[in-house]
Amino acid sequence: MNLYSIAFNNMWRRKSRILFNVTVLLVSTAITVTLFLVVDSMRLTLGDQIDEFGSNLVIVPQAEGMEISYGGTEVANTAIDLDQLSEADLEKISTIPDYRSINIVSPKIVAAVNVNDVGIIMVGVEPRREFMMKPWFTLSEQEGIEPGLNPGDLALLDLPEKGLIVGSDAARVLNLKAGDLVDVNGSTFQVAGILNRLGSVEDGLLIGKLSTVQGLLNRPGEISMIEISAYCNECPVEELAAQLTEALPNGRVTALRQAALLREETIDRFSLFSFLLTGVILVVAMLLVLTSMMGSIHERTREIGIFRAIGFRGSHVMQIILLEAGVAGLLGGIAGYLSGHLIARNFGSYLSGESIELAWQTDLFLPVLIFSTTVALLAAIYPAYRASKLDPVEALRFI
Amino acid sequence: MSLLQIALYNLNRRKSKGFFIFTSLVLASAAVVAILIIISTMQDEISEQLADVGANIVITADRGGLTFQYGGITIPELVFDSVTLTEADLDAIDTIPDRDMIIAVAPKLIGTVSSEDQTIVLMGVDLPGELAVKPWLRFNDSGKKIDKPVEETSYDGQVEMMEMDYEALILDRMVDVPVLGNDEAIIGGVMAEELGISEHDSLELGGKEYNLIAVFEETGYSEDSQLFVPLGEVQDLLDRPGELTMIELTADLSKIDESLLIAQLENALPHAKVTGVKQAVMRRNELLNTIGRFGAFSGSLIVSASFFTALLTIFASVKERTREIGIFRAIGFRAKDILTIIIAEALLVGFIAGITGYHLGLAVAHKISPALTGIMLSGSWEITALLITVVLTAITGSLAGVLPAIKAARLDPAEALRFN
Amino acid sequence: MADLLIKLEQVKKIYKTGEAEVEVLRNLSLTVPPGEAVAVMGPSGSGKSTLLSIIGGLNLPNEGKVIIDGIDLYCLNRERRADFRREYLGFVFQHFQLIPYLTAVQNTMLPLTTTRYPARKKREMAMQALERVGMERKCNRLPNQLSGGEQERVAIARAIVNAPPLMLADEPTGNLDTTTAQDIMKLFSSLNKSGLTILMVTHNPENTKYMKRTIAMQDGVIVSDTDSLAVVAGNEIEFRESAGELR
């Protein structure tokens, strides 16, 4: 029988105590791991949420009189009109390396039209894509639905060929209601719905289907603007803008500053706070382990006294205690790593509002193990030292 | 001597044992307070910051001139009634009860003029207000930069972390911005290219020369093709003295409900139409929702973990008292009497630990966090947090003590006496 | 008071340790009239401590009846048995079993804690008990500030503080030196003379001479039940032999 077998025997006999130490370590490690994972996935979720909300890139045709050059080389003059964007350009978007980051591409044509001799701006869009990208567009009136009843979801609306969605200011200026027939540049459209007031430039628009508006203007296949909503977690928006510029030499690609600023600010703030949060957790976890380990060694004073009384050296006592702490740390670390992942995986969907796949972060395993073992050992050193210095008579008296 | 006194004697004479329980409860409650404050501050700050990026309320004349501009196309003003906003309305905004919640006001008159066969969209603006509402507007690098002798007041270290102009603008709206002289103008990036002009050039509008002091970087919005001129100049050029097309507002919607503020504004400006910017509001709500869920999750995670650990510690410590409980039982104490002693101890320790932990948590939130991250934490949570911690600690303390105490009391005293 | 203070009928106690069953008491019957002083002797494992804890209501017998002062002990529930111990019994445990964080007088007061006496009365009663064991001068000391004999005295004071009819003592001199042990035994003897019935488990044959009656146990049964004075006076040698045998 050597020191280690004493330590292991002791652990085996006193399962509830080792269980206690392991549990404390497990809980501390598990919350730390969970928080790490959750903060990580929250950062991505928040980013995605901002990115999904409206466009963050816009492509317009190159302005007249612009030199078309990219990276110093002149781009060859091609057959198509360089100043225009066309539907062919949409396909080029899918050729960029980071195409996977692009969420929604919404092409549109914009033109001034005449309605009852009033000049107004009309936009041709792909309704599904446009309204999916801008979920804050909602209808106040819809053709075929009685006033007072809730209009349907715009993203699900099937806009007819000659249907129009009218912005609230435009409806006011033109005095339009849902279901009205309206003459646009000599062609008759029906108002399919009126938008709620948005407080932005879109309030003054007539929105029709892309192909219809192209036909109306006699500019088939032509596009005057492409709005893109892209995920920027893996590929920053500037990078995407550069790739798109390369793919579309005839377009002028701009990353929308407001979206970028909002993203950056929000993520920065969140990161700062989660850093603080994780810091507090780490410290609390460490202190909790420290007090509970100290408490549990304190409870053993009498037993330590017996070891001392039968001739164990102080260093022997320390070795036994530290060995126990180390084993508890290892077990707690492994269990904490596993349960942290389980918690994060099970609650991840609650957090992001949709189910997300949380990968097992294997590179977290070793740091977690080292963390929990180190904390356990650190927590044990002081009480072990004190126990080893204890006068055996004193220790035996202790209840 | 009563049962309560036994509890007190135990706590008093076995301080080191009580210390570990006390410490773990203090830790648990301090963690709860600190975390609650961090999370609530995070929600406040992010919500404030979301409100800051861009206008969230727009005031237009109820019936009045409209200038439409979208995708590079501008429709000159459609006048269909003569009611307009005037500069007097700006004073009316100042009269609303929650004026404090409005961070920035950007009045503007939009109009078009012809210059060299081109239609130019004129934005008559109050430049500081405009930049405050649109913090993403930046001057072209080659152009005149905003000098920003940031006043290092309450923000201290925080400012150093910010390197970009607009961020400083968001942080501190007192930042110096160039004053737009009466014969000066700033031009949008796309328009500058289209006209082939840059800063230091001049532009003639309605017979008056304007010096371009800067060019805005492209933003992807309508500002790209606008010319920014002092408000008074545009009013003169268009011969519409004192008139405004619209007023954009940035309000801190983290502290006040949007509809309430809009109602107040409508009240103050009966002839105007006040609209919340739908995009901003909806995005804000969505993000806050997500962050709220995160807060609730991590908060409850930490609360339950720390109290679970405290529970374990108490559990283990009462378990160690099995023999003592055996003595009490053997000399004729009822199980109820033993529970009374244990619960009295736990409540007492829990109560003191709860209060201590509360103050420790506050100290962490108020002292350590600002030093560490530059974030000043302040909680609307504080009283709630005190209640939560004290009640939770006391409950945890007694709950954790009762279970092993019952177990020990149910044990045959002869067995319990032999324990350990 | 009933004719017999303690009456055990066919008491059987079995301990289960894993698979094995150990029969500690085998159909043991015993009667003790009031005012008796009984020493129970026997080697370790003979069942004497179990007998004591069963009489004290600490440990349930598997079979048989335990009637103390006319009360069938194991018809009472757990809590009623606790009440019984408080009112009828004084217990002196092996290793004293004092509460470490309470002073001598506080430990003595413990059985009175839940009674309705006013605080001053409780203290008075505790001081009287301490006086009887000669510990009144050290009443404010904590157990770890007392010697073994002194702790034993405090434990005895605690056992007699509410003037119970019966005192049970488990190896009261087991941890004490000879002189101190003699003092404690003299104390027992004088308590008995003042009317307290005592049942004491002991290893030490010397102690039997302070008791009126001596019971020897082996393997869960009573092997001899004699007058202690006779043991000491006439059959000391014989008894020693039989005790040696037992051992």
Describe the protein:
The complex is a heterotrimer of chains A (399), B (420) and C (247). Chain A has 399 residues and is α+β, with helices and mostly antiparallel strands. Chain A has twelve helices and 14 strands. In chain A, a hairpin with a 2-residue loop joins strand 2 (69-70) and strand 3. In chain A, helix 2 (15-52) runs antiparallel to helix 8 (257-298). The model of chain A is unreliable at 64-82 (pLDDT under 50). With 420 residues, chain B is an alpha+beta fold. Chain B has two domains: 3-43 and 287-418, no CATH class; 55-276, no CATH class. With 247 residues, chain C is α/β, with parallel strands linked by helices. Chain C has a single domain (6-246), classed as Rossmann fold, CATH 3.40.50.300. In chain C, a hairpin with a 2-residue loop joins strand 4 and strand 5.
Can you give keywords for this protein?
heterotrimer, A: 399 residues, two-stranded antiparallel sheet, 12 helices, 14 strands, elongated, C: 247 residues, alpha/beta, Rossmann fold, six-stranded mixed beta sheet, four-stranded antiparallel beta sheet, 26% strand, disordered C terminus
The SSE string of chain A, one letter per element, is: HHEEEEHEEHEEHEEEHEEHEHHHHH
Chain pair forming the biggest interface: A-B, 94 and 97 residues
Strand order of the largest sheet of chain C: 6-7-8-3-9-10
Instruction: Provide the domain count of chain A.
Output: 2
The tally of helices of chain A reads 12
